[in-house]
């Protein structure tokens, strides 16, 4: 699964950081960034994406097809 954050949409609510701190963190601009963990809990990542009020977290499968939103 590929994970990215649309920085134009991110407002720094930080739900993603609370749910999946090994995958997301807030940067100096209070925007979420994706860390590069060796292994990620895909269920937690999906939960984090679903919790984003701005739908700023985009999930894609390994072929590039969008899984969320």
How many domains, as an integer? 1
Oligomer: single chain
CATH class: Alpha Beta
Rounded average pLDDT: 96
CATH topology: Alpha-Beta Plaits
Rg over CA atoms:
11 Å
Describe, in plain words, how this protein is organized in 3D.
Strands 1-4-5 form a three-stranded antiparallel β-sheet, with helices on one face. It has helices at residues 15-19, 42-51; strands at 2-5, 24-26, 32-34, 57-60, 66-68. It has 69 residues and is α+β, with helices and mostly antiparallel strands. The protein is built from two helices and five strands; from the N terminus they run E-H-E-E-H-E-E.
Short overview:
It is built from 2 helices and 5 strands; from the N terminus they run βαββαββ. It has 69 residues and is an alpha+beta fold. It has a single domain, classed as Alpha-Beta Plaits, CATH 3.30.70.
Please render the helix and strand layout as text:
Elements: E1 2-5, H1 15-19, E2 24-26, E3 32-34, H2 42-51, E4 57-60, E5 66-68
Antiparallel strand pairs: 1-4, 2-3, 4-5
What descriptive keywords fit this protein?
3-stranded antiparallel sheet, alpha+beta, 2 helices, globular, 69 residues, Alpha-Beta Plaits
């Amino acid at each position: 699964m590929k994970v990215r954050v649309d920085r134009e949409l991110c407002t720094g609510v930080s739900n993603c950081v609370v749910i999946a701190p090994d995958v997301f963190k807030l940067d100096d601009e209070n925007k979420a960034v994706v860390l590069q963990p060796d292994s990620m809990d895909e269920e937690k990542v999906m939960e984090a994406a679903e919790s984003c009020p701005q739908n700023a977290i985009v999930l894609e499968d390994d072929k590039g097809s969008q899984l969320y939103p």
